[in-house]
Amino acid sequence: CAAWVVFDEPYALPNGWVLGSMTRGAQMPVKLALKNNNLDKLKQLVKDVSYPTSSKYGQHATTEQLAALTAPSVESVNKVKSWLEGAGVKYSLTGTMDMFHLHTTTEDIARLFNTEVGTAYNLRTHQTAHHAGVIRMPADIAPLVKAIFGVHGLPLPTRPSLIRDPSIVPYNVTPEVLQKQYKVSGVTPTGTVMNR
Predict the structure, then answer these.
(1) What is the spatial distance between Cα 53 and Cα 57, in angstroms, rounded to a whole number?
(2) Whole-number Å distance between alpha carbons of 7 and 142
(3) How far apart are CA 54 and CA 48, in angstroms?
(4) What digits encode the pLDDT tens for the residues 120-129?
């Protein structure tokens, strides 16, 4: 087995959040983004199509061409596939071959990334989220990965309702009501429900 290296460290939970034990068997979808290739060529391409003096000015690349240009190497994709399959992790891979969607549980993530996973709980809003500790990867896999999503994030706080009292019904303000209230005359309102 290859040596493990630290890939990402968790931040301290904000005030109002506490970390409890792992919820066993809970689904924990995680995304693993691979490093893109040819970013220097992409930067030059953007310059070339953007400058009027360039012979390539206005010759924009298609989404498919950009994906092909920046796709991770086949070797990188296969190496990460082998690692995930060897760990028994189910995944799907985006069509651009640069993002693995891991279909995992909390135990899978703890084992795959050699970490601890707990359940973060917000004392005020009662929201929960799975929260991993230090993320480790095999030393031969970590350099291939750009980012990992879904191991340290927290949900946005819930917003209070704008209507404080549900028994209050908002006013039905129409052009006729405005004309009567403000004594407006000689104006015929027009409009459409279509965006322009």
Answers:
(1) 7
(2) 7
(3) 6
(4) 999 999 999 9
Tokens (6 digits) for 1: 């087995």
Note the pLDDT tens digit of each residue in 161-175. 766 776 777 778 888
Q: Is the dihedral of CA 165, 166, 167, 173 positive or negative?
A: positive
* End-to-end Cα distance, the chain: 60
Distance CA 188, CA 82 (A): 69
Give me the residue label for tokens 């939970």: 13
- Residues of the chain with confidence (pLDDT) below 50: none
Percentages of the chain per state (helix, strand, coil), in multiples of 5 = 25, 25, 50
pTM of the prediction? 0.73
CA gyration radius for the chain?
A: 26
CA atoms within a 13 Å half-sphere pointing along the CA-CB vector of 107: 4
Sign of the Cα torsion 131, 134, 137, 142 reads positive
- Look-up: residue for tokens 């707990």? 118
- Sign of torsion, CA 107 109 115 117? negative
8-state DSSP, 26: -
Read off the tokens for 163.
């209507």
Cα 44 to the chain's mean position, in Å?
27
Strand ranges for the chain from DSSP E? 4-8, 17-20, 30-34, 90-93, 99-103, 117-122, 128-132, 135-138, 145-149
